[in-house]
Design brief:
The chain is an alpha+beta fold.
């Protein structure tokens, strides 16, 4: 154990008596705590030993670089070699920077990515200055991954061996080549293998296999593979891209870097194709055995994919790429839906403009000349033909094959390591389907051709989405040529403004659509209104029942109009407000001025179901009938014209509505009848008031059902008003309380009859009948109450007298009085005339209802029994064996309780002494 030997030497020296100083120097080729795992378990011993050394030095990769430069790469300063190299360095520094420096490095950026001074280059030549440092990173990472641990001990020794091998290995050797040649990492790879024998495992076997592949492909496949292997050992901070692989393979000062990069890319493509290497986002890595076999399975699945599956996936991918065209904002006023087909399969079904897209997978015949002729006739169809690119189809195949291969692997109970691998592949599939394929779909569209209006428009090199948008705009303009009549953006709240308009300003959209003239009149000849009215009139005259709001909005959203629903709604509202049309919903007609119109136009469902008709008119007979009814019902004479009739009728209706509503609420609060006639009347009145135009109101007013409702219910309203003014409704409330709380106890049937009158619909008309019935029932009740009250007072008095005559009062009067006081009499009232005041139904003194009085009789009986029992208990002898033997002769019910009380007292006395009571009962009739 070298560690313990070193500690022993140090301790021995410290114990010797030595004159002067002794230097103890210990070296290690590696950091011990990194090299020997046991150090972590012996940290205390290691720390104790390390503390003995006051001076500590560490050999870093920078130190190793200096050692290598001094030992192997040092050159004479005044040699011709220096002059020649410097001349070529200065002449070709641009190509050197472009071809030999690394890119996208996230550590030591200046070291790897920036051109260095000549002195640094000369000191490291034929290596690039960063080569030596990069080799150290490779060695460190190989050590961490367990590659040939024994062969990687000693940074400087390993580096010296690898640099020496790089210079001497190969045919020709690097030292034998011209001074402008550089060391490349394929030589570094060979040197590592030969000099320190560090490289083993599947990757090495794979690289050796590549010799045959290189012969077949005529490409530096093996050289690229060696460089890739070393580069991928460093870590993610230095990406293994084609550019960086080409940089560490840059062979010569002045060499054009671009052919080298192209050769590297070709070689990488071969390695990827043959499933030796994988690529992700431009970064390459060697496949493990698991990855390689999996990729072979993917390739097998690729060969079996049917065309229809690729077409289905392509349609799905294109759906996302074309989503931006499903709606077109036209002139910043209206959104038009676009019907989209991909390879003759619809993916967006709604719209009057068709965008037909053909992907690279379309198998049908596309004759561009025929398509041009077709679009010259069919202005509502646009063709978008994608460019034909095999890479898009390749990626489709890979996505489908990858899915199948994953399903097969996942179904075979993979190990945890395989599960982790498959999860990564799932992520790759997600990226392929959600990122790569959509991007490539957009790319083939961007490189495609647009055909519309009989002409072709190449999209490559342009803003293709804008070109497609322009084509759609042109198609909308050609197809919806009547759009200008309704060209406006209308908000929901602007639609109904015209319905409540009494003059004054309106939203600007009404001017934009020319609905209002300068004199604030609704223009029936406005292009929008004229078109709407003409269509409605045509449908009415042809008896076409398709005149609902939905029918009209559907019609005017289609070519050649393309108007938004709100534009159509505004036009319909303006025509109604002018009186040109009316609206029918649920059997009721709404015309100009009707308050209910606003709610209808705010409800999409109700407006869709509403039917539109031409405006209403009155004939002379209808006007005469309305005038006569106005006089008969309301005493309003001399109203002849529709406007006069409407004005007078509205005034009376509003008065009825207000008065009726107040009375109805009053009846509801009091729980009285008469509500339904008022509800019916108010409903009919409000229905009339909602009629906006005079014509609509008058037509509704003269209907038989309306006249009947007024004749029947106006009298009820009048009588209810009279009762309210005379405090009759308050009296009805008192009657109801009497019937419910008092009369019902005496005679429930009579109380029910009284309540039926109170709750009847014609209560106001039966008022006198109610009062008479109430007076009769009240007299009966008062008589019964007084009699019962007097009887209860009498029985209470007699009960007290009976108890005071009990033998217990003779034996121990004081104790008997105590018993009596302990049980207060359940009823005490001195009122001789309890209902002396009218309208009162309980005694003012005892405040007991009729039912409570009846209950008091039962309470009195129970009270007397309890007191009797306790008085009997006073008669029982103390300290002796209890026994009674008596003979009773009972001739009336009143004599039962004293007998029972005596028995109960005896039993309680026996039980109180812990004894049982034995009873012998013999009862017989007595002559």
């Amino acid at each position: 154990d070298r560690l313990m030997e070193l500690q022993a030497i140090a301790e021995t020296i410290s114990q010797r008596h030595i004159v002067g100083k002794v230097w103890l120097i210990a070296t290690a080729q590696e950091a011990l705590e990194e090299k020997i795992p046991e150090i972590s378990r012996r940290e205390a011993d290691f720390q104790k030993l390390r503390d003995r050394f006051q001076m500590k030095a560490t050999l870093t990769p920078e130190n190793v670089t200096i050692v290598v430069q001094k030992r192997l790469l040092d050159k004479k300063r005044d040699s011709l070699l220096r002059e020649e190299i410097e001349k070529k360095f200065q002449s070709h520094s641009g190509r050197l920077a472009s071809g030999a420096l690394l890119k996208n490095v996230s550590r030591d950026i200046d070291r790897y990515t920036k051109l260095f001074p000549f002195e640094e280059f000369f000191a490291s030549y034929p290596f690039m200055p960063y080569h030596l440092h990069l080799m150290q990173k490779v060695l460190d990472n190989l050590r961490g991954k367990g590659f040939g641990i024994q062969g990687l001990t000693g940074r400087e020794r390993s580096a010296l061996g690898i640099v020496r091998g790089t210079l001497l290995q190969g045919d020709p050797q690097l030292l034998e080549m011209e001074v402008d040649f550089l060391a490349t990492f394929d030589r570094v790879f060979d040197a590592m293998e030969e000099e320190v024998q560090t490289l083993r495992g599947a990757e090495m076997a794979t690289i050796k296999e590549l010799a045959k592949l290189e012969e077949r492909e005529k490409l530096p496949v093996q050289k690229v593979a060696k460089a890739l292997f070393l580069l991928q050992q460093v870590g993610d901070w230095l990406p293994a891209t084609a550019e960086n692989i080409a940089a560490i393979l840059y062979p010569k000062l002045g060499e054009d870097p671009f052919p080298i990069l192209e050769e590297v890319r070709k070689s990488l493509s071969v390695l990827v194709r043959e499933h030796y290497v994988g690529e992700k986002e431009g970064k390459y890595h060697f496949f493990s055995e698991t990855e390689r076999t999996f990729e072979q399975e993917v390739e097998q699945q690729r060969q079996r994919i049917p065309t229809v599956k690729k077409q289905e996936l392509a349609k799905e991918i294109f759906r996302e790429g074309l989503r931006r065209f499903q709606k077109l904002r036209y002139r910043d006023l209206q959104d038009f839906e676009i019907k989209i087909d991909v390879d003759d399969v619809n993916i967006s079904p709604r719209g009057y403009i068709s965008l037909k897209v053909f992907s690279p997978l379309y198998l049908g015949d596309l004759n561009l000349d025929d398509i041009e002729l077709r679009t010259a006739r069919e202005k509502d169809v646009i063709y978008l033909i994608a460019a034909s690119e095999s890479t898009f189809e390749d990626d489709l195949e890979r996505a489908l094959a990858l899915e199948k291969a994953l399903e097969q692997r996942e179904s075979k109970a993979p190990s945890e390591e395989e599960k982790a691998f498959l999860r990564e592949k799932r992520k790759d599939l997600t990226i392929l389907r959600e990122d790569v394929l959509p991007a490539k779909a957009v790319d083939v569209l961007r490189k495609g051709i647009l055909i519309y209006r009989g002409g072709r428009v190449p999209l490559h090199g342009t803003d293709w989405t804008e070109k497609v948008r322009q084509a759609l705009v042109a198609s909308v303009k050609d197809t919806f040529y009547e759009f200008d009549k309704g060209a406006a953006r209308v908000r929901d709240d602007e639609v109904t403004k015209i319905l409540t308009w009494k003059g004054g300003s309106l939203p600007l959209v009404y001017q934009a659509l020319a609905v209002i003239d300068p004199s604030s009149n609704i223009r029936e000849d406005a292009p929008l209104l004229q078109t709407l009215l003409s269509e409605i009139r045509s449908r009415v005259e042809s008896h076409n029942t398709q005149r609902t709001g939905k029918d009209l909005m559907d019609h005017f959203s289609a070519p050649p109009y393309g108007w938004s629903p709100n534009v159509v709604k505004l036009g319909l509202a303006a025509l109604i407000a002018r009186g040109s049309i009316s609206l029918v919903l649920e059997g009721r007609t709404y015309a100009s001025g009707d308050p209910g119109l606003v709610d209808i136009f705010k409800s999409a469902r109700r407006l869709s179901n509403a039917r539109f008709d031409l405006g209403l008119t009155l004939n002379p007979d209808e006007e005469e009938q309305a005038s006569r009814l106005l006089a008969e019902l309301f005493g309003e004479h001399g109203k002849i014209t529709p406007a006069e009739i409407q004005g007078a009728l509205r005034r009376h209706l509003e008065e009825i509505s207000q008065k009726g509503t107040n009375l109805l609420q009053r009846l509801r609060d009091l729980g009285l009848g008469g509500q339904k006639p008022l509800e019916d009347l108010i409903s009919k009145v409000n229905s009339l008031l909602e009629k906006g135009s005079a014509e609509a109101m008058i037509k509704e007013f003269i209907k038989d059902e309306t006249v009947k409702a007024f004749c029947q219910n106006l009298r009820t309203l009048k009588e209810a008003s009279r009762l309210e003014e005379g405090k009759g409704l308050e009296r009805a409330k008192e009657i109801r309380e009497f019937a419910t709380n008092h009369l019902a106890v005496l005679d429930s049937q009579e109380a029910r009859k009284l309540r039926q009158i109170l709750q009847s619909d014609d209560l106001p008309l039966r008022w006198e009948e109610l009062l008479e019935a109430y007076r009769q029932k009240e007299d009966l009740f008062r008589k019964e109450y007084k009699a019962l009250h007097a009887k209860l007072r009498k029985e209470c008095s007699e009960a007290v007298k009976r108890l005071r005559s009990h033998p217990a009062f003779a034996k121990d009067r004081e104790e008997a009085e105590r018993v009596l006081k302990a049980h207060p009499l359940p009823f005490v009232c001195d009122e001789e005339n309890p209902l002396s005041e009218l309208g009162t139904y309980v005694c003012p003194s005892c405040n007991l209802t009729l039912g409570a009085l009846r209950q008091k009789f039962q309470e009195l009986k129970a009270w007397e029994a309890i007191v009797l029992q306790q008085l009997e208990g006073l008669l029982l002898p103390e300290g002796e064996k209890l026994a009674i033997e008596e003979q009773y002769h009972i001739s009336s019910p009143e004599e039962i309780e004293p007998f029972v009380a005596k028995i109960k007292a005896f039993i309680h006395g026996a039980l109180g002494k812990g004894k049982k009571a034995r009873l012998y009962i013999k009862a017989e009739e007595e002559e």
